[in-house]
Specification:
The chain is mainly α and 83 residues long. The chain is built from 5 helices and no strands. The longest helix has 12 residues. The N and C termini lie far apart (30 Å).
Length: 83
């Protein structure tokens, strides 16, 4: 079993993220709930790209990261894998 360690430098950007100031409810909604508000907040966040990169690198399966939902990140991975 391979377990990847997450270092402080991997998550240092989180202190500056707008989501850290708003709470997790928007970013980890109940199944079937809208992610519109989370995406709006992400769109205003200056470190959105670091967030998305983290989610893709660490295979985050749930929630909105970097302005993309789970399904959008899966689609992005598939598209990049075929490019």
């Amino acid at each position: 079993m391979h377990i990847e360690a997450i270092t402080a430098s991997d998550i240092a950007w989180q202190d500056q993220a707008l989501c850290a100031q708003t709470g997790a409810d928007f970013f980890f909604p109940e199944p079937g709930s809208s992610v519109r508000e989370a995406k709006r907040i992400c769109g205003l966040c200056r470190i959105r790209s670091a967030c998305l990169e983290y989610a893709l690198t660490h295979d985050e399966r749930f929630g909105v990261w970097g302005g993309l939902s789970e399904k959008e990140r899966i689609h992005m991975r598939r598209t990049e894998g075929n490019g």
